[in-house]
Design a protein that fits this description.
Mean pLDDT: 90
Shape: elongated
Strand order of the largest sheet: 1-2
Order of helices and strands: HEHHEHEHHEHHHHHHEEH
Helix content: 40-55%
Oligomer: single chain
Number of helices: 13
Number of domains: 2
Structural class: mainly alpha
Distance between the termini: 111 Å
Low-confidence stretches: none
Strand content: 5-15%
């Protein structure tokens, strides 16, 4: 009798062990299957989403082989609890992951990030176009005027030109264009405050906003980093002696949509608030978004006697102290242009 009981117990243990082995093998096979996606794919998990519903979603989308999601989920919680603690957010799954690897990336991974880059010298109008085209971003300002956006951001100005720092900004799904604008405005204010606090003495600038206006002109005049302090010196020298700035980018900005790629003589003679061929001093607002280097140059110009500059035809500029030398530089530039035709 004892031997029979012992044999029965052994059989039960063997059967139980076999069942455990079978279940474990089934789970390993299930979790080891490849998630059928062909390219990086976003998965958004809302707060309160259950583990069962994630498995069902994967099955419904034909990413994995179908199974009894409720039954499977219970077994996975027992045998592989490390893959079940999902967190809310939007995550990017790479191709060729096993189901277990995919679930672990949803548990341990960082939220998917995207970026938008605004180059130095771009305008607010161009920024709005970039926002409208940015993927996975909430476009909350599409139907808002510039003044309405300024009010929403708590900016006490009607024009937003120049009030955002040109840079690359990262965002996650669910963030809005207003979120990025707010961050870019904060970055601009912090950068401007830093450099204005360390500005040269006796600059012909009344406040940090005027430094920003000057920085935007510098930004539009040259893309050569080492030239920015020298370009700044030309404008500072002109401001100091009451000479008009006579810079083409301000004319173009004042023309708005009328600008078709060329500035004519009559455009230079047509007054606008931004035409520095007809007004003295700085225009009323910045004419573009700026980067940190342009701000630095606006408050720390080179010590020079230059009053003029013209394109060299080789990527930079030729600087002159008087009109005679400047005219020669202009003629040399025109000669180079004709030679290339």
């Amino acid at each position: 009798m004892f031997k029979k009981l012992l044999l029965l117990c052994v059989c039960l243990v063997v059967v139980a062990a076999g069942a455990v082995f079978y279940v474990k093998n089934q789970m390993d096979t299930y979790l080891g299957q490849t998630v059928s996606i062909q390219e990086p794919t976003l998965v958004t998990i809302e707060s309160g989403t259950s583990f069962n519903s994630i498995l069902r979603r994967f099955e419904t989308d034909n990413w994995i082989q179908s199974a009894d999601a409720d039954y499977v989920a219970k077994l996975i919680r027992r045998l592989h609890p490390e893959v079940t603690q999902l967190k809310a957010g939007t995550f990017e799954l790479e191709p060729n992951l096993s189901l277990k690897e995919a679930l672990l990336s949803l548990v341990n991974g960082k939220e998917a990030q995207f970026s938008i880059t605004f180059v130095e010298g771009s305008t607010f109008k161009e920024w709005r176009t970039q926002f409208d085209e940015a993927p996975h971003l909430v476009h909350s300002t599409v139907d808002m005027s510039e003044q309405e956006i300024a009010k929403e951001l708590g900016i006490e100005r009607d024009k937003l030109e120049g009030l955002f720092l040109a840079n690359t900004y990262h965002y996650t799904v669910g963030m809005s264009d207003l979120d990025i604008m707010r961050r870019a405005n904060t970055s601009l204010n912090q950068t401007l405050e830093k450099y204005w606090g360390g500005r040269q003495e006796k600059l012909p600038l009344k406040n940090a906003y005027e430094a920003l206006i000057l920085a935007s002109i510098i930004e539009k005049e040259t893309a050569v980093p080492e030239e920015r302090p020298l370009v700044s010196s030309v404008f500072v020298n002109r401001l100091n002696i009451g000479m008009r700035l006579q810079t083409d980018p301000t004319v173009i900005y004042g023309m708005g949509d009328k600008y078709q790629g060329n500035i004519r003589k009559r455009d230079l003679q047509t007054p606008t608030p931004y035409n520095t061929y007809t007004i003295f001093g700085l225009p009323p607002t910045p004419i573009a978004m700026v980067g940190e280097e342009a701000i630095a140059a606006s408050v720390d110009p080179d010590d020079s006697k230059y009053l003029y500059f013209v394109a060299s035809g080789e990527g930079g500029h030729v600087f002159s102290k008087n009109l005679r030398d400047h005219n020669r530089a202009v003629q040399e530039y025109l000669r180079k242009l004709r030679a290339r035709k």
